[in-house]
Structures are given as C-alpha cells and as structure tokens.
Amino acid sequence: MLCYAEPRAMKMLRFRSPSVSSLAQEVQCTVRLLDDSEISCSIQRDTKGQFLLDHVCNHYSLLEKDYFGIRYVDPEKQRHWLDPSKPVVKQMKCQQPYTMCFRVKFYPQEPIKIKEELTRYLLYLQLKRDLYHGRLLCPFADAAYLGACIVQAELGDYDPEEHPADYISDFKLFPKQSLKLESKIMEIHRNELRGQCPALAELSLLQRAHTLDTYGVDPHPCKDFTGSTAFLGFTARGFVVFQGNKRIHLLKWADVSKFKFEGKTFYVIGVQREKKLVLTFHTSTPASCKHLWKCAVENQAFYKCAKSSQIKTVSSSSIIFKGSRFRYSGRVAKEVIEASSKIQRDPPVVHRSQFGHCKSFTSLSHKQLIMNMEPLLPALSSSRENRDSSKNNGLSALKDSVHLSPLKPSVTSEEVEVRDNHVQERREDEAVKRMRADEERREIPADHEDEACAALPISDTAYSPCASVVPTPVEESQGGVDLLFQSPARLLKELHADPEMQLELQAEREREVAREAFRQSLYLPSSGRQQMQACLLSAARLVVMATGLLVILLPLLLVLLESDLDISFLHDIRQTPEFEEFHYEYYCPLRRWFLCKLELMTEQLWGD
Q: Which residue intervals are annotated with compositional bias (Basic and acidic residues) in the record (predicted)?
C-alpha cells in the first residue's frame, strides 16, 4: 500500500527551540493523518503548535497548508484546535505521550480554486470521513453519486471479470448502507464515471460535495431556547443551524455582527431583514461554549475578512475586564487563494491509499452511527443545472492540469486520435453549458437569495452525526434529535415572545439608547446651558476626587511622619521648623487629649 504512512518505530524527529533551559526535556507526540496512518516526533516543552503543523505539512510536501489544522481531545473529552502561536505542552492537558489528529479546519468555498492535486486529495480524504461519520448528510441521489466517486477513485473502471456482483458491500462509505443505495452506486460507477482517473473522480466528489448544505460543517450540539437539540456550524457562506432534518437558519457572514458567550450560553448577534437578531443557545459545559465561540471567531475572520491585517482581537463579553479575548492569527481565505495561484513548482507525487484502506473503517462499526440512508428526494438549495455546470467547470479545469493516461496501455494511434477529438468536442459542449449556466445565474432575482436563507430540508432523516466525533460532548439527557420543524419567521416570533429573551433585548436596547445619548451629549450639545451643566458636573467630580485623595493621603502621611521609620525623606521633613511647630503645638496636645478621653472611657467601662 502506497500512502503517506510511517511506522511507529521510525526515527524520532526533534524540534530544537531557542531556549537552552528546556533542551533536556522532550515530549513525545503522535499525529494521526487523514488516511489513519501516524507519524511520531519529539518536541521540546516550549515548542509552539506551528512547528508541529509545519512538520506534518513537510511530511506531505504540502504548500496550501492554511486549510488544515491539528486537533486534540482533553481529558473531559472536549475537542480543541491546536493554537499555532502557543506552546504545545501548555495547551495539552492530558498525559504524555500526546496524540493528535491532522484534519481540515477550513473547507474551501470553491474546491476548483485549489492549485495542487495533493491538497485536493487531502480534502477528499476529509470529506470521505465526513460521509462515514454522518457529518456530511445528503439526500439519496447525492449520496449515491458521492459513493460512486469514491469507488471510481479507489478501484478505477468497472470490470465484470474482476468485480463480483456485491463488490460495493466491501466499501464502508456511510454509517448505514442499504441495498438500494449500493445498487445505485454501482449503476453510477459503471456508467457515468467510466474513464475517470483517481484525480478526476476525487474532484468530481469535491464539486458535488461543496454544493451540499452540510459541506464543511463541524457540528456543535446544543439546546435552543425551547430546550430542543440543535447543531450549530460554520461554513464558507455563514453561520448555520440544523434541527431535525432541516437547516432552520443561515446567517451570512455579512449579516453577522458579533459572537459572544457567558458561561454555557452562546449568543449570535446579527441583522436579518434590516432588523437586529439575537440568537441564544445553551451548551453542556462552559468549556464547550468557549470552544464554540473560538471556532465562530476563527471562521468569521477566515471567510469574511479581505486581509489578515483587518482581523481584530475580540472579547467574549462587552463588559470591561471580563471575559476571554482571542484573535485569529492566520491568513484569510482570499489571501490563501492568491498565494495558491502563485505556486510555481512541479506538482508533488500523490501516494494514494489503495482499496484496503477503505476496509479499515470496519473497526469503527461498534460505534453508534445513526444516519439512516433510506431513499431520499434531492431537496437542496442549489439547482440541478448549477451543480452540473459547476461539475463540468471543475472537470474541464482539471483536464487541463492533469495528465489523463488510459487505464490499459495497449492503445493504437487511431484510438488516441478519436479519443482526442471526442475530448475536444466534449470540452466545447461543456464551455457552452458553462456560459448558459452563468447567464442563468445572472438572471436569478434577489428574492431567491433570501429564500435560500429560509428553512430548507437537507434529507428525510434528522441531522444527528456520530456522538463520538462531534466537537463537544452531548449530555445523556439530550437523547435523540427532537423533530421540531419551524420556519425562521415562527422561530423568531417565539424567540421574541420568550420572557427572558424579552428582558434581555429590552436591557440591550436601553444600554444602546444610553450610549447614544451620552455620545450626543459629548459631541453635539444642543445649547450653551447644556455645555455649562457639563462643565459644572466635571468640575464637581474633580473637586470630589481631590477631596477624597486628601482625606486618604494626609492621615497616611501624618502616620508615617510620626512613626519611627528611618527613611531619608521622612527624616528631612521632621527636621523642618514647620513640622516641629506642627508637632508640638497641634499633634502633641491632640494626642494627649485623645489619650485622656480614652482613659476615661476605659475607667467607666471597668467601673461599671
């Protein structure tokens, strides 16, 4: 099997950090790759996460590394992304040796813009994992096409002499495969995908997968204000919420104002139809809520900002000196695409895992995988024409960059000429289709874009990925997913009808009104009388502050001067005539009077 795998007994690599004091202490790390192989290394205690990420990328010879990250799980089973700017040891709370996973962190919005085949292959491996674990939920037709793409990439063209009647059953592609689904996969594999090399089949999968509503969703389970289970996610389009078998919310990045959290409560503040929108969700633990907030901040910065210089440090709360502060430190999506277009090197050799790797998924069959893949109707937001055009666009672009060698070497010159003519005609037809699709997309009214944000079915089954792979732990009380299908208008109406939410919104409005009034009083005074009142108020505050300081500092200075502290500046003050006059004429009589009164009070108390 040819793949990027290294044996466990490999020679350990060491990262030397500048700190001399920490050279004697080394930490063993194991990173699991996307094909379930592992690489091991030895790092110093002050080695930062970026060194470990660079090590894995160098192992692959990967340049488009901004889409990827390293993930780990703490002892409380809470998943985290390794921060590249912080030391690895300070982030890992578990015992050594450390075990982490190399995964896709930011999914490209348009996979066709990925420059190198190696990057597309790694994204293909991630999407294959998403399909198997139920994160990439899709209707029956799309599931069959994606499964056929995987079979074509792993096996090549269908050959009745080599492939038995039930050869699809050897592939564990979905949590629950029905015979009808396997039959449809075989039909597409035999007819539609014949002749595609592995790189082309993988791109076909990417082009279809990126049109799905669950593409790039790393589900975060939580409760909404009604107590129903929902899954939150972040995609290239924006913030999404899945409940039951529907996407009930899609808030685009342009409409998202801020994310914040307090304890176990996560807030999404944005604008919908020119009105302020506040969505509230409750997680199972404060740690999961903080992880959700960090993921929201990172995805918003990566997909929304045009330059990394525009990224600002954000706070989890609007209250001063309270909450967490965090800043995404990587490059944004537009910068990554620009950097990819400037790559000038010979494409690295991609060592793909063979068919045997697919059987490795059978070791996970004991987990509770709860995605029912019964026949479904394709009910996605994008039309069939748009999918075909995007698929043709991707395939034609890959044909220009990938050498499509025939599977059987015995090909005559006449067959090559006929094939080249056929390919040229197909490219021309695809170009015409792309032009028509572009014209149709330009003619789509703006109302359709708003409809895409409404409640949309993603399948006939509830979105409920495997509990062992979701980024935050699910409480036992959550159970299954409540099939509460509501439209956004009804959900928003009930949200504002909630008494607690109504009080919170009212308090938020009052704070905004107070802040606006304060700004107007500072910068736009309406009359001279208001200016005079503001000046008098400032002067009164200054007098009060000065008086308070005198009341506190003068007694303190007096105690220091009358004490026995042998300090130079205090000794100099004691030698001045003014202090001696104050000491003998005021301080000593006042002290004798105070002691006398204290003695009298003591005698009265003892006498009684």
A: 416-443
